[in-house]
Amino acid sequence: MKSLVLALAIVLVSGLHYTTFAQGRGGGRGQGGGPPSGNPGMGRQPSSIGVDRGINTSSDRSNGRADIGRGTASDNSRGRSDAGLERARLQRENARRADDELNDHPGMAGHLHTTANALRSGYQNALLTNPDLSFGNYVAATRLGTNLGRNHPNITTTAILSGLANGRSIGRTLQDLGLSEQEARDAKKQAEREIKEAKKR
Question: Are 138 and 108 a contacting pair, CB within 8 Å?
């Protein structure tokens, strides 16, 4: 009887020891600081979180300067676009008026010793630099360049057009190019008379 009790005690102790040993090994495999194999993303921050946080907080960190910069760039671009459209509109409108005037006065160009196509193409080129230039001022500049260029080589059609593009009047431009106030006035009146006469042709 005593031997049977002793044998059962040995078996019980051995079973407890084995169970404790197995649990210890299982717990050891779960340690080591890494995430369990079934959840590889546990313990690590998703890569997208940092990127989103940087974009969303750029305005906060710069006290709104990032948003202001983006808005200003858009406004500036729109302003340049609007200015370009306005220049193109002026060029088309003035070129159309020149065509109308040449059609209304078909003999004008010949009387001024040029051609309608020469006046038209020259005016269109001048509009690229000065969209506000009127056709009347362009024709006057061509006449003044022809009339004055003989005795004043620096007074050319191109020089007069440059003065007009810089906001000068024809009379002021002629004075800048060396004429006296009276000479500029007389030259301008002569050109106006010639153009008026040419329109009657």
Answer: no
In angstroms, the CA 194 to CA 201 distance is 11
Please report which residue ranges of 31-134 form alpha helices under DSSP H: 47-61, 65-104, 108-111, 116-129
Q: How many residues does the chain have?
A: 201
Quick one: DSSP state of residue 35? P
**Residue with token string 């004008």:** 108
d(CA 45, CA 153): 79
- The model's pLDDT over 146-180, given as tens digits with 9 standing for 90+, comes to 999 999 999 999 999 999 999 999 999 999 999 99
The phi-psi region of residue 133 (left if phi > 0; otherwise alpha if psi is between -120 and 50; otherwise beta) is beta
Segment 71-111, tens digit of pLDDT: 555 566 666 678 788 888 888 998 899 999 999 999 999 99
Q: Where are the beta strands (DSSP E) in 61-201?
A: none
How far is it, in rounded angstroms, from Cα 201 to Cα 197? 7
* Helix, strand, or coil (residue 93): helix
- Cα(161)–Cα(140) distance, integer angstroms: 10
